[in-house]
Amino acid sequence: MIEKEIRVAVIDDEASIRESLRHWCNWQTGFQCVGAWQTVPDALAAIPWIQPQVLLLDLHLADSESVESIPALKSKVPDMAVMMLTGEDDYYWVEQALQRGADGYLTKKNATDLLARAIRDVLLGGSPLTPDVSRKLIAAHINASPDSARLDQLSPRERMVIAKLAEGMVYKEIAEHFGISIETVRTHSRRIFKKLNVGTKTEAVLKYLKSIRPNGAPPGC
Q1: Where are the domains of the chain?
Q2: Of 29, 35, 36, 34, nearest to 4 (Cα)?
Q3: FRET label pair with 112: which of 17, 118, 155, 164, CA 20 to 30 Å apart?
């Protein structure tokens, strides 16, 4: 459930960007910046006490590549969504972040008009991507080989859930559609990820679409 003010935290090694995001959160209706750090170790020490709902994470930090720390960050606050907010749009890094559990990937050059909506969407179970990232991700998976064998492992209800995810529904909407709890939707999703050997909703949806639309063909082809 989204609270009246969404608790946002930031990890970025550039002081000007940290302060800009802190200012944005505190002046934007419905958001509150509860922490901003230069390094991952500083954040790891603080976030269990602060309990952010969304963490905005830069990729290339002065002392590390932050994707390696995503599992550790999420283990500290399991319900926290981690959204990459970075200047890097190379597909390799997008894939690395999503595989390690990032819930969304925004590039800074396109984030200004998308950030508020993306933060709200990620809390509802969405996987926000800026258009440039989305195009690269889709192009890479369209050229991949279909994996229908893994799709055959899904139960009928899991197939129904992933079909709704592919339609763009978020967890709350799927729960309402099927008359089940959001936690049940999350459980189905975790099982889907495991069976499809993926780490995120975005990867699962792309693999599903590739399996039912070989070579990127539209439905019915």
Answers
A1: 6-139, 146-214
A2: 29
A3: 164
Tell the CATH topology of 146-214.
Arc Repressor Mutant, subunit A (1.10.10)
Residue environment code for 33-55, b if the CB has 16+ CB neighbours within 10 A, otherwise e: bbbbbbbbeebbeebeeeebbbb
Q: pLDDT by residue for the chain (221 residues), tens digit each? A: 445 789 999 999 999 999 999 999 988 889 999 999 999 999 999 999 999 999 999 999 987 889 999 999 999 998 999 999 998 888 788 888 888 889 989 988 867 778 999 999 899 888 888 877 877 776 665 555 555 557 788 888 998 998 888 887 888 889 999 999 888 998 898 889 888 887 778 778 878 877 765 444 433 33
Cβ neighbors of 187 (< 8 A, separation 6 or more) are: none
What CA dihedral angle connects 113, 114, 116 and 120, to 10 degrees? 160
CA pair distance 61, 12, nearest whole angstrom: 7
